[in-house]
Amino acid sequence: MSTLEGALEACNLLHEAGYELICVTTMPEKFVEQRLRNLKQHGFKIDRVIGRQVHHKLPNDFLKHKDYTNPKKEAIEEVKPVIFVDDLKQNFRDIQCDCTKFVYIDAEHTDDHPNLHDDTPYHYKYGSLIEFVKDFLKREKEMLS
């Protein structure tokens, strides 16, 4: 498993600031322990991993379908994080959690990327995780209010 540029530094900065780091993934529950081990082997101070499998009968282009069911919704509503960061806007869809700010990481996408025409709302948008974390740690109180 390779890591995104700046992701390790970003997670370590959040950990040092006292935040609990939880990875919510769309992989099956049976693989979460291995994912946590992999993350820790790369130096990430992740506290836990929650797995929520995307339904196995969905077509490969399921993100383009309007009736897409957000596999991370239940986990986010249960955990109620102060910040939920993702690079797929669809993963913010239908989450009922007033205490959570949604941060969309928008790296450059191709014309057929599912984010291109998606209008799912979010609170903040950044080009990378490290860009968000550095700004967040400077403006934490403002961004969480």
From TrEMBL:
SUPFAM superfamilies xrefs: HAD-like
Gene3D superfamilies: HAD superfamily/HAD-like
InterPro entries in UniProt: HAD-like_sf (IPR036412), HAD_sf (IPR023214)
Protein name from the UniProt record: Uncharacterized protein
Organism of derivation: Didymodactylos carnosus
Organism classification: Eukaryota, Metazoa, Spiralia, Gnathifera, Rotifera
